[in-house]
Specification:
Elements: E1 2-7, H1 11-26, E2 30-33, E3 44-49, H2 54-70, E4 79-84, H3 85-89, H4 91-97, E5 103-105, H5 113-121, E6 153-157, E7 159-160, H6 171-175, E8 179-180, H7 183-195, E9 200-204, H8 221-229, E10 236-239, H9 244-249, H10 251-260, E11 264-269, H11 277-283, H12 289-302, E12 307-314, H13 321-334, E13 338-343, H14 361-386, E14 390-398, E15 406-410, E16 421-424, E17 433-442, E18 445-452
Parallel strand pairs: 1-2, 1-3, 3-4, 4-5, 6-9, 9-10, 10-11, 11-12, 12-13, 16-18
Antiparallel strand pairs: 7-8, 14-15, 14-17, 15-16, 17-18
Length: 454
């Protein structure tokens, strides 16, 4: 069969899609990932869903309805499969909303995708109540994931699930408890990806700073970084999804690792979620603003030009004007380079769902706009300081823009979320590093002139 896989949501979903693609291909199917040309008709469409917050669920339903409408039409798919977090968390609801779904796969079904599709073809579809719990999920594929042959970057998952139990979050229910991958398996996959020509490995998990806590009893992210550094000579390694409170506890080891291990670029993503201590306690984040500010000062002193990314939630239950002002004060003091933010989404089954004092939606949106405006203002001085600097850029693609024919990213830009570098000069080769001089910026995108393509 010809199978299309459409991926929604986070980078963890992308990895699951790439594993499913490999499993399906091993069983004789022709697989098209959603970032490939779609001129070839698909017999079956897998939509790998996201159910993290309400906007993600709306996007998932829109995508599924689109393909449901295509079923039965000339050129449309015969089978529609919903995979991932939404079938895992709300299978009955999904079946009611979109009855044309032929099969649902939970997050623990990645390696069974081909077998379950075969059962569907034979007229033996599994019912929604047969989806296994995520704690049984295996994250080890029998062969390398299917990535684009021209991919310059790939995600590398170091653990699955989460046990933090933040009061607003559904991830433990959808993805199960925290489970570290053995370091030897992570190293082996890193080697496979690099051998395919990948130049950047982006380390991801629900919480990368918890790595190893279930293996030896203590988090050992710095130890894992040391092991990976030996595998990645000449490549970049980027660190995402770190917990700020846990970063502080391992500061004596994590800061030297980022500073001294050559493949690790000076970039950290550390979602704060808020800047007021009372709200942080209500969220279950186990950190406080003053300690984080001290850590940021120490980090910037040790690692000049480090890029710091964070995320905030506004409109959390109980957030007063004073709490929000404390958040603004924290953002002003921290001067993060990149800030993502969204309004609180009430999720049934979480502790925060029943908390009183949720600000009205209109007020939350007003606060969100004010926060993002301030974050942009505090980041601008650092962006102006980058003008004239010569940086290494990983080229990802070319385009028809005669002034800026190359598109890539510097160390200061994570894939998919932080903007790009638009390169002037002779069109560069995708998948290569170039040196370029930054000439300007707009938002998080930068403009640069290529000075060396060797």
């Amino acid at each position: 069969m010809r199978v299309r896989i459409v991926t929604l949501g986070c980078a963890k979903n992308r990895i699951d899609s790439e594993i499913m693609a490999a499993v399906l291909e091993d069983n004789g199917h022709y697989v098209l990932l959603d970032d490939r040309p779609d001129s070839i008709r698909a017999d079956a469409v897998f939509v790998n869903t996201c159910a993290f917050i309400e906007p993600a669920r709306r996007e998932t339903l829109e995508e599924l309805r689109y393909y449901a409408e295509q079923k039965g039409r000339e050129g449309g798919p015969r089978w529609l499969v919903a995979a991932g977090c939404m079938p895992q968390g709300m299978p009955e609801y999904l079946a009611r909303e979109i009855p044309d779904i032929d099969l649902m796969l939970g997050v623990a079904d990645v390696l069974q995708a081909a077998d379950l599709l075969h059962q569907l073809q034979e007229g033996r579809p599994r019912t929604p109540d047969g989806i296994p719990l995520p704690d049984s999920c295996s994250i080890e594929a029998p062969r390398p994931r299917m990535i684009s042959p021209t991919a310059a970057q790939a995600y590398l998952r170091i653990s699955e699930g989460c046990s933090n139990r933040c009061s607003y979050c559904t991830i433990p229910r959808l993805r199960g408890a925290f489970r570290s991958r053995p370091s030897e398996l992570i190293k082996a996959e890193a080697g496979q990806l690099l051998s395919l020509g990948v130049k950047e490995l982006t380390l991801i998990a629900q919480d990368t700073t918890n790595y190893g806590i279930d293996l030896d009893g203590e988090p050992d992210l710095p130890g894992l970084l040391e092991k990976l550094a030996a595998e990645a000579e000449g490549a970049w390694i980027r660190l995402l999804y770190t917990h700020p409170g846990k970063l502080l506890k391992m500061a004596d080891r994590i800061i030297p690792a980022i500073r001294d291990l050559e493949p690790f670029i000076p970039y950290i993503d550390m979602p704060m979620q808020h800047g007021d201590d009372e709200i942080l306690r209500a969220m279950g984040r186990n950190t406080n603003a003053a300690d984080v500010l001290q850590f940021l000062d120490r980090l910037r002193e040790a690692v000049p030009h480090i890029t710091l990314r964070t995320t905030f939630i506004v409109g959390f239950p109980g957030e007063t004007d004073e709490h929000f002002q404390n958040l603004l004060n924290f953002v002003q003091a921290a001067s993060f380079d990149i800030v993502g933010a969204f309004a609180y989404s009430p999720e049934s089954g979480t502790r925060a769902f029943d908390m009183p004092g949720r600000p009205p939606a209109e007020l939350a949106q007003t606060r969100l706009a004010e926060l993002l405006n301030l974050a942009q203002e505090t980041a601008e001085p650092a962006r102006y300081d980058r003008i004239g600097r010569i940086v290494q850029v990983l080229v990802e693609s070319t385009c028809d823009d005669k002034d800026y024919p190359g598109i890539g990213r510097s160390y200061a830009q994570a894939p998919e979320v932080d903007g790009v570098v638009r390169l002037s000069g002779e069109a560069p080769q995708p998948g290569n590093f170039v040196l370029a001089e930054i000439s300007g910026f707009t938002g998080t995108d930068e403009f640069a002139r290529i000075i060396n393509q060797d």
